[in-house]
Amino acid sequence: MEKKTTYQKIIQGIIIAVSLFAAFLHVGKFTVLTVPSILFYILHVMIGFVLTFIYYPLGRKQKEKTPAQTTLYRVIDWIFIAATVAVSLYIAINFESYTTDMQNNHLTDELFVMGCIMAVITLEVGRRVLGNVLPVVAILTVLYALFGNHIPGLFGHRGYKLSRVMLSIFSDRGIYGSPIATSANNVFLFLLFAAYLNVSHADQIFQDIAIALAGRKRGGPAKMAVVASAFFGTISGSCVANVVSTGAFTIPLMKRNGYRSRFAGAVEAVASTGGQIMPPIMGAAAFVMADITGISYATICLSALLPAVMYYICLFKMVDLESVKHNLQGLPPEMIPDLKTAVKRGVKLFVPVIVLLVLMIGLSMTPMLSAIWSIAAIIVCAFLDPHDRMTLKNLLQGMVSAGRSMVTVVAACATAGIVVGMFSMTGLGNKFSDFILQLGSNSLIPSLVLSMLVCAVLGMGLPTTAAYIVCATAIAPALTNLGLARLPAHLFLLYFASISAITPPVAVASFAAAGIADENPMKVGFTAVKLGITGFILPFAFALNNDYITLELTFQTLITWLSGIVICYSLAVMLQGYVEQKITVFERIAYLAIIALTIVPSPLYSIIGIVLFIGLYGFRVWQAKKGPKSGKALPA
Q: Which of 64, 211, 546, 549 is the most interior residue, by most CB within 10 Å?
């Protein structure tokens, strides 16, 4: 093991100190501390930015650096850190005068200089963590605010001075606006919750449970990957982190079982991406959605349940039919862990999740307090586990892990805050919305297609949270003006912002999986699109039929759930061309007709589609039991 240098030890100490401060600040804010909201957001940004310059140092991708270059890069990093802390502490010390000036739209010379400094730092943070796309978008919106008076037609405006622009950026309308508010209030505590699940070895326990449940079945490794990634993804909410953690085990196992490399990578990418739309936690963007729409997070989770279940059912069936097609069997008995043992080990993880669901959905407690009590439940349960007891080191690891995870969210939300501030000040959001309405001829379906394309393009270069914020600001008004309710409109945008992680040409989840599978990223990406096809269809389904996001104890809900299952199975069968045997072209067309029948908002048509599916699918299953399967073995 390489010995750490003095500088590395100092950096490690700072990371621990800042992470501890972050944990105590965020937990204390909603329990024992009285901290004004804007001051809380300022400190949240300061923590995120300081950790960014530590975790993403200048020149980190440069393979060979001279001692002089290393010193120069470190000096620049520490100048950024010092400037971040100096500006943040200045505002904290002079908080009352700062808030008064912001409320009165008055920007002193000192605040103007500090605003310029924070704007530059924010763009640099965005560049280091997210790449060039979002910072460039932010710069373009600033230039639009400054020089938009020279643009004729719909997108022109009266023009704004630099001081007015900086006032918007350096206030609760910009960097410290609603995106950062959501990150500070909700996201960090759930990142801390996920971090403590991780240090309690949630990934390994979920893998063992998944193998025990699905490993014996045909194509067991791929089915296990779907189950494990669904478990872990709903808690982590990060598709790339999910791919890297669970995929390191599942992808090689799928390849050894006979699955093609591109298919193995695609399964993991699609399963991991689904975690961002899978209740109960979903991803950071869901918290932003709750804040923007004013709809409770619990309502969003319940509404997202059926679409998320449909997403995974279709993926699971696609995997099953792939194993039929290539005659792939399950894992040998010696590789299957005991289910009872795995579940017993998982009790310490299930209890906190149950606590979270009961408090947040059952008792309607705020997400913040629900997360805090759930974190306490993790620590208590892990401490009581005699086989894998929580230690002080684990406690620190959880805080450090949460601190590292918050960097991406803070970078995305702070940089997106500049975009949101400029959209709000110039009215660009409404103008963009009017533009979409004009292109879509004031018709809902063409406007939905245009919105999907914009989300897909933005999502290719941005993390889900940032892509959703920009889309919600620019596109959501157009959809609501066409009569679409807020919930389906924003859920539509959230879905496509999420699913962009598997959409070529820039598909971060597919590319991460391709690296593990040792396969061409584009091949993995296009295979992922096929496997995750429901993610592209479902948003249109619930936008046009709100029954898919309405959870009530009614006959209509029952029919909708049955229709959802039939649609998923029919879609998988139609795309794969197999049931228990290879099916004909006419049967595939028949399954397409069943999808068309069951997806429309009509109980009668849905019932007809369900009956036809049972007859068509049941006949093939019955026929397969009478004769040998015709699946071909995959060539070695």
A: 211
pTM score over 0.90: no
**In DSSP terms, which residues pair with 582 in a beta bridge?**
578
Chain segment 185-208, per-residue pLDDT in tens:
888 998 898 889 888 887 778 788
For 14-48, give one letter per residue: b (16+ CB within 10 A) or e. Answer: ebeebbebbbebbbebbeeeebeebbbbbbbbbbb
> Does residue 564 contact residue 548 with C-beta atoms inside 8 Å?
yes
Residue ending a domain, among 351, 381, 413, is 413
By the 8 A CB rule, do 289 and 468 touch?
A: yes
**What is the tally of structural domains in the chain?**
2
Please indicate, yes or no, if residue 292 is contained in any of the structural domains: yes
Angle between helix axes 202-214 and 188-199 (nearest 10 degrees) is 70
Sequence-distant (6+) residues with CB within 8 A of 452 are: 496, 536, 539
CB 356 within 8 A of CB 371: yes
Instruction: Report, in this order, helix, strand and coil percent for the chain, each rounded to 5.
Output: 80, 0, 20
User: What would you measure as the largest C-alpha separation in the chain, in angstroms?
Assistant: 85
Using alpha carbons, list the distances in angstroms from residue 529 to 26, 507, 547: 38, 10, 25
Question: What is the residue whose two structure tokens read 């975009």?
Answer: 419
Q: Confirm if 488 and 295 have CB atoms less than 8 A apart.
A: no
Torsions phi, psi for 164 (to 5 deg): -70, -40
| Amino acid, single-letter form, for residue 331 | L
Is 525 among the domain residues?
no
- What's the Cα-to-Cα distance from 363 to each of 54, 298, 435, rounded to whole Å? 40, 10, 43
3 state DSSP class of 589? helix
Q: How many CA atoms lie within 13 A of 383 on its CB side?
A: 10
Q: How many CB atoms lie within 10 A of CB 463?
A: 28
Residues in the chain: 636
Contact 609, 560 (CB under 8 A): no
First to last CA, the chain: 40
DSSP-derived secondary structure for 462-506? S-HHHHHHHHHHHTHHHHHHTT--HHHHHHHHHHHHHHGGG-TTS
pLDDT number for residue 632: 43
In the DSSP assignment, the letter for residue 631 is P
Determine contact, residues 188/22, Cβ cutoff 8 Å: yes
Q: Among residues 353, 380, 413, which one ends one of the domains?
A: 413
| DSSP 3-state of 312 | helix
Q: What is the average pLDDT across 358-371? A: 86
Does residue 138 sit within a domain?
Answer: no
Range of the domain at 584: 552-631
Q: CA 259, 505, 289, 543 torsion: positive or negative?
A: negative
Please give the Cα distance from 13 to 47 (Å, whole number).
15
511 sits in which H/E element: helix 508-517
Q: Which residues on neighbouring strands pair with residue 578, listed in sequence order?
A: 582
Taking alpha carbons only, the member of 383, 61, 346 closest to residue 213 is 346
Q: How confident is the model over 275-327, as pLDDT tens digits?
A: 888 887 787 778 889 888 989 888 998 899 999 999 999 999 999 999 998 88
Cβ 186 vs Cβ 287: under 8 Å: yes
Residue 606 CB neighbour total at 10 angstroms: 23
Nearest C-alpha neighbor of 119 from the set 51, 168, 187: 168
- Is 582 in a helix, a strand, or coil? strand
Identify the CA nearest to 196 among candidates 392, 399, 359, 15.
399
Residue 592 located in a structural domain: yes
